[in-house]
Amino acid sequence: MTHEKQTVAVVGGGPAGLMAAETLANAGIAVTVYDRMPSLGRKFLLAGRGGLNLTHGEALETFLTRYGAAASALAPAIEAFPPTALRAWAEELGEPTFVGSSGRVFPKSFKASPLLRAWLRRLAGQGVQTCLRHRFVGLGAGGALRFETPAGPVEVVADATVLALGGASWPRLGADGGWTGELARAGLDIAPLQPANCGFHVSWSPHLREKFAGAPLKSIALSFEGRVQRGEAVITERGIEGGAVYALSAPLREAVAARGEATLLIDLRPDVAADELVRRLEKPRAGQSMSTYLRKAAGLPPVAIALLREAGPLPADAAGLAARVKAMPVRLTAPASIERAISTAGGVRFDALDTGLMARALPGVFIAGEMLDWEAPTGGYLLQACFASGVAAGRGAIEFLKSHNKGL
User: Fold this and answer.
1) Torsions phi, psi of 228, nearest 5?
2) Which of 18, 26, 138, 400 is deepest in the core (most CB within 10 A)?
């Protein structure tokens, strides 16, 4: 007896959706990927502009802690497709990887485009079909997927569906979070989408805003409520952003939401002990301007000196001045818009899903990637969870088809 080949619709052509498609195609299932953009993997390509940090080389036990409250929910997917598996997958596509000095894992080419091209060629060879310029607008009768296309509305019926529509950051690349209302109406519990790995608004003085917007703060340490992050930041016209800020963005965002503001402390010279800095600042100014004095005695660049003045007149005594250099307070009033964030927090809560990432309220519909309620810092954790959840959703769909005798 022969069985008609079963079909799965994957909605969203980013890393999670494409990995789900590959997992399904490897099982002999007919897969079609639908995406609203004219080409696939656009945000993946954007991630590659910084060298494509695919994952991280630290021990898996430590790796999982980076996902905070979502660690236990994501653990099964990441343990089933860990960083070692992702690296092996990239090498199979002709893009071997290496571990950098920080533990971050990159393709040796440092580019996303060769990897994506090789991946898409392999998917095409596996029979995966693509339908571009298909914007998902909701669910129709009997679980049909409704799309808007240049040719008009389209409805698609498949034996199972993987939704990997992304969060709401960088909407011009395809993910705008427009799916939240439709899935909430369908009975899924969804945590509000919020910016993650984002900058924050600060009410700078006109002088700092006009003279130093775009200036980097290098080799600094940020602290907030006992958490310390070394790295860099950038002064923007509206506030502050950069890697060190992103690493603290989750607790900062929650504090702003709870209290209306958060005070970030910046150590402008983390490699110089406080008592040594006091000793340096006790030296006579010898007629130098304060800016020249701070530049020579404390090693501060102009942007750091201007930042010190944001907290009011500079202390006259060396101890007070050193204290400000070591803990410059910056009042954050709001996170930057979700459109400018690197990633998104919130999404479909894991309680709304079974262990195969299938929506309990929508049998046969699986959720992957940034649509899920998790967040993580930069450093390879974002892409790893997207890839791993895509594999998990694909495997969940395979088991669903098997259990329902869908020709497998």
Assistant:
1) -125, 135
2) 18
With a cut of 50, say whether residue 1 has pLDDT above it: no
Specify which residues 328 forms β-bridges with. 266
Q: Which residue in 369, 383, 373 sits closest to 350, CA to CA?
A: 373
Q: Which of 384 and 5 is assigned the larger pLDDT?
A: 384
Distance in angstroms (rounded) separating the CA atoms of residues 67 and 377: 8
Residue 407 has pLDDT above 60, yes or no: no
DSSP 8-class letter at 204: -
Q: Determine how many CB atoms are found less than 10 A away from the CB of residue 389.
A: 30
Q: What residues pair up with 353 in beta bridges, in sequence order?
A: 359
Contacts of 82 (CB under 8 A, 6+ apart): 60, 63, 388
What does the block give as tokens for 122? 């392999």
Q: Which of 309, 308, 377 is nearest to 345 (CA)?
A: 377
What lies within 8 Å, CB to CB, of 334 at 6+ separation is: 200, 201, 256
Residue 23: pLDDT band (50, 70, 90) is: very high
SS3 219: strand
CATH class of 7-196+341-403: alpha beta
Q: What is the DSSP letter of 382?
A: H
Cross-strand partners of 367: 163
Strands 334-335 and 145-149: unpaired
Token output for 54: 């695919």
* Every domain of the chain and the residues it spans: 7-196+341-403, 200-335
What token pair was written down for 196? 């993650």
Alpha carbon 344 to chain centroid, angstroms: 6
Among 333, 104, 342, which Cα is nearest to 246's? 342
User: Which amino acid would we find at residue 121?
Assistant: R
Contacts 24+ apart (CB under 8 A), 323-326: 323/274, 325/267, 325/268, 325/269, 325/277, 325/298, 325/300, 326/267, 326/268, 326/269, 326/274, 326/277
Q: For residue 169, give the DSSP letter.
A: S
In the chain the first and final C-alpha atoms are separated, in Å, by 12
CA distance 195 to 334: 11
